[in-house]
Amino acid sequence: MSHDLRTAEIQSAIDRAAASGGGVVTISPGVHRTGALRLRSFVELHLENGARLEFVPDPRLYPVIDASWEGAPARIHQPCIFADGETNVAVTGLGTIDGGGSRWWEAVRAGDELEAARPTLISFRHSTRVTIRDVVLENSPAWTVHPYRCDDVRVSGVRIKNPADSPNTDGVNPESCRNVRITDCHIDVGDDCIAIKAGTEASSQDPAPCENVLIAGCTMLRGHGGVVIGSEMSGDVRGVVISDCIFDGTDRGVRLKTRRGRGGTVEDLRITNIVMRRVACPFVVNPFYFCGPDGKLPHVSDRSALPADETTPTIRRVFISNVSASDVTSCAGFISGLPERPLDDITILDVSIGFADDPLPSVPAMADGVPEMAAAGFQIDFVRNSRISGVSLTGVVGDAVVAGPGAENLTAEVTSNER
Q1: Residue 186 is among the residues annotated as catalytic for this protein
Q2: Residue 191 appears among annotated catalytic residues
């Protein structure tokens, strides 16, 4: 197999460009098979129209490195395209990058023991001025685009396609990054389309915030969530704008997920001008998230007030407006804080939700004790100083708003319409 690999040739071109002060390494039309590549400062990897960069799914081609996996220190196979501590790195062009994910996914499904965690497709760490533009990214072994502790990140015009049943193949996951723009992308994946993250309590370094994030003009299909915050949020997430996007067939629309022990603050989110179709639940705020390590411990799902400290997550100042959602199946929204740390200052304005004609019952939030629902109204508890106004629900079954005893100073103006 090794005789047709172009790894050494492409890597040598990248290294020569870096040694000369920077430049463009061009991948010409045709199929180019390779192993892991490492970008250097001031180098742009450019795929011409018709170029296809195929990463061969042989673990020996991806050296094991010390990095992180889902917010915790881990040994992972080096990402297919990787940079660490670089400046002005870019992947551009109208060509296609294929991660060869199927063999990696088969190993996960079979329960095979890998030497290290699967490689992501593109991961830039501790880097500045990162650009990913126009390329087609498909069949990622794990997360597709993963900037980690980067500053000045731009992902634009990118098309991401991973099969709906491919495990952990999130689209774009900025983690503990600053000044991020994700625009004009089309994302169709097997997990969250975009997930904003900020490390966990298990991080080897002090968790750093993910802040100043703009997501605009994107279409998102089939993923578990359109735009998700968490569950890794120990370092704080703040200053996020999500606007002018379409979510079609995602399990949830906008989802915030965390749990006790994780700490961190999510604040100053503005979500506006969104169209959703065929989603189970348009809005989810879930601080009882049970997936991952320690997610099944009793304190995670406990609905009684526990002592609050620095490990108690905080969510506040979330503004949602001008959203329309059709063919919704589960409920209009699942919005909950913790009894010891209620959500604060949540606003939902000018939202129209229409339920499917024959909705299939499903669980709106991944938390113990949440039942299946079909065409239910807003489920709200442990919130304060919040309002819902100018909201209409068509085809809702039962009350438009079900507010629990932990809802304080909540104003809800919701109109229920028959079909």
Answers
A1: no
A2: yes
What is the CATH architecture assignment of 49-417?
3 Solenoid (2.160)
With contact defined as beta carbons under 8 Å apart, do 157 and 134 qualify?
yes
Q: Please tell me the distance from the alpha carbon of residue 209 to that of residue 263, in angstroms, as a whole number.
A: 12
Omega within 30 of 0 (cis) for the link into 12? no
Contact 264, 198 (CB under 8 A): yes
DSSP state of 367: S
Instruction: Tell me the H-state helices in 302-355.
Output: none
CA 180 to chain centre: 13
For 87-113, give one letter per residue: b (16+ CB within 10 A) or e: ebbbbbbbbbbbbbbeebbebeeeeee
Q: Cα dist. 267→50, 79, 212, 319 in Å?
A: 43, 31, 11, 10
First CA to last CA distance, the chain: 61
Domain boundaries, the chain: 49-417
Bond into 231 cis (ω within 30): yes
The encoded tokens of residue 401 equal: 């708003």
DSSP code for 119: P
Given a contact cutoff of 8 angstroms between Cβ atoms, the answer to whether 337 and 343 are in contact is yes
The span from the CA of 84 to the CA of 152, in Å, is 15
Amino acid identity of residue 119, one-letter, is P
- pLDDT bracket for residue 204 (50, 70, 90): low
Cα–Cα dist 185/218, whole Å: 5
Round to whole Å and give the CA distance between 287 and 380: 13
> If you average pLDDT over every residue of the chain, what do you get?
96
Residue 138 — left, alpha, or beta (φ > 0 → left; ψ -120 to 50 → alpha)?
beta
| pLDDT reported for residue 68 | 87
Residues 196, 227: contact at Cβ < 8 Å? Answer: yes
307-334, pLDDT tens digit by residue? 999 999 999 999 999 999 999 999 999 9
* Average confidence (pLDDT) over 192-214: 92
Copy the structure tokens of residue 346: 């949540």
Out of 46, 188, 224, 344, the active site residue is 224
| pLDDT attached to residue 225 | 96
Please choose, from the candidates 363, 352, 365, 362, the residue with its C-alpha nearest in 3D space to the C-alpha of residue 394.
Answer: 352
